Amino acid sequence: MSGQIFLFDPTERFVVGTVGIPGERTFFLQARTGSRLISVSLEKAQVAALADRIQQILREVRSSEPLTIFERIVRDDAPLETPIDEEFRVGVIGLAYVSDRKLIEIDLQAMADSQSAEDEEALMEISESQDILRVLISLGYAESFAKRALAVVGAGRAPCPFCGGPIDPSGHLCPRANGYRR
């Protein structure tokens, strides 16, 4: 069976957002062009890695192509669009810089049926049988997306100043305090 490629070129809106309270959040990426909207879910670490890698690509473009213009895009702080229907859960993420069009291409491949979100040893291979969300965004939009993504990731639970673990609203059992609540 062949997977679908959901192509968004051009993309009117590409954002990351969450549903749920800190500690129990589900992360989503949404792409929209006109009335066509798709939402995919992914892990917090994947969002952080995607944002970091986009920023790295943008730094490389700035240094290798200093005449390239990055248009200023106002950061999109609007919530995710409803309804939030997960098309698939992201397994593999691919990034590329399309130099002739001055765009960043982001490929988000569905997790294979044999993979699970908790299986850290699963081999993630590009497969033609998995659905792919392919989004092409301008350099300025990519910069704005990365800033929002890092802000969303950082908006979770505050870290404990002693052990670095997340602190729930009710506190947490700190291993550095011999199990006493902080």
UniProtKB/TrEMBL annotation:
<dbReference type="InterPro" id="IPR021441">
    <property type="entry name" value="DUF3090"/>
</dbReference>
<dbReference type="Pfam" id="PF11290">
    <property type="entry name" value="DUF3090"/>
</dbReference>
<protein>
    <submittedName>
        <fullName>Unannotated protein</fullName>
    </submittedName>
</protein>
